[in-house]
Amino acid sequence: MEWIYPEFEVIRDRDRCIACRVCERQCANEVHRYDPETKKMTADESKCVSCHRCVALCPTRALKIVKSGHTFRENANWSRQSMEEIYRQAGSGGVLLSSMGNPKEYPVYWDKLLLNASQVTNPPIDPLREPMETKTFLGKKPTRVRRDEQGRIVPGLPPQLELSTPILFSAMSYGSISYNAHQSLAQAASELGIFYNTGEGGLHRDFYQYGANTIVQVASGRFGVHKDYLNAGAAIEIKMGQGAKPGIGGHLPGAKITGDVSRTRMIPAGTDAISPAPHHDIYSIEDLRQLVYSLKEATNYQKPVIVKIAAVHNVAAIASGIARSGADVIAIDGFRGGTGAAPTRIRDNVGIPIELALAAVDQRLREEGIRNEVSLLVGGSIRSSADLLKAILLGADGAYIGTAALLALGCHLCRSCHSGRCNWGIATQRPDLVKRLNPEVGAKRLVNLVTAWTHELKEMMGGMGINSIEAARGNRLMLRGVGLTDAELRVLGVKHAGE
């Protein structure tokens, strides 16, 4: 709209620019254009999303993208963003859509929690010279050992997911991300001995080969769900909610429903894939229990069932009910979790931080004596190995990473996933863009990331004098808060630094 000045400016060094037109060829948003009369490059900055593709590939380093210096008459109540959103809606009459996680300046509790370290009486462990166990098992754990009349242990452990390290790749559907991005995630999970999640878009036939490291998702739209799909994966996840958009269903624009995507999802090409807000067969914990056991029956009770929920105000009570539904794992998704597309108002205003939700759920399940009935997974802006360890100390068995994984693949967080014009070949179905992501290179970078985090995890645990994930899980004595209120410390279940 002509009333809105571009958010970014393209700065081109005319002395360095050789008009090679690489920027023009690489930009799916058509920002750059060659002017044959002046023989110079020009830019339509209104289309720029600051993806940095042109900057990264400019052979003479003639380009940079900067935030616009243009200002509005802002005040403490009306920001530039608030005014621009009014202009956009007045012009379109539509709901505002956004990609990726909540960008608001709410507290990031990971940054307000500090880790303890061992000193004299409980010496640290050297992870280079002493064994450190990062292996994790997800699923129900027995509360007691059963033996037969001869004293032999009676086997009866429910199905478990074995992870070499407590990291999984988050649910990202085929359609919202590209074939090459899915292959990168699947291949990396297989190499690492961890798992990736299909999201709610079914599983491409080419990726059934990675089934031993795949979590297949059943969402409210049931896209791509059939018996072979359920049996293809190592576990099944029922998606009840998502951190970026609690209380609503998913939406994949018809432009992304191309041939392979439509076949995988089992819907017509070119039609919007809109999943309903609720599962229309689930209106109570009893209904959820029926679906849990239907899925177990369909897979001969050989696969754990995960129930994914968004982090909301009454999440502890919800998790308590889910733990009694027969589910093996509960996945909690915080409000900073990424998404391909969500209504801006919901993404920015609904839900609670994952740190508070996790602490509340872990404490509730412990108080009720049912913590071993389920494992806990968390997601929603796990940005580093430090965030991961803090999540484990607050009670998680493992963590989903989504945005971090996409960054490893080359994502620049330009937050335009819903447009389908991802210049890095990740959140797109355009063949010319998809091929920009080499799956072999992508998988290697994901393996590097998880390997690096695992090394750091061992170093930090060793510094605490802890040699296994199991010993770290829920060990809140190893955490201290800084700059937190009494209420926040109480919910997190940690003491303030210095106590």
TrEMBL record:
InterPro entries: 4Fe4S_Fe-S-bd, 4Fe4S_Fe_S_CS, Aldolase_TIM, GltB, GltB_archl_type, Glu_synthdom. Its EC number is 1.4.1.13. Residues 8-37, 39-68 form the 4Fe-4S ferredoxin-type domain. One of its GO terms (molecular function) is metal ion binding. [4Fe-4S] cluster 1 binds at residues 17, 20, 23, 58. It catalyses: 2 L-glutamate + NADP(+) = L-glutamine + 2-oxoglutarate + NADPH + H(+). SUPFAM superfamilies: 4Fe-4S ferredoxins, FMN-linked oxidoreductases. Gene3D superfamilies: 3.30.70.20, Aldolase class I. It holds the Pfam family Glu_synthase. PANTHER family: ARCHAEAL-TYPE GLUTAMATE SYNTHASE [NADPH]. Belongs to the glutamate synthase family. This is glutamate synthase (NADPH).
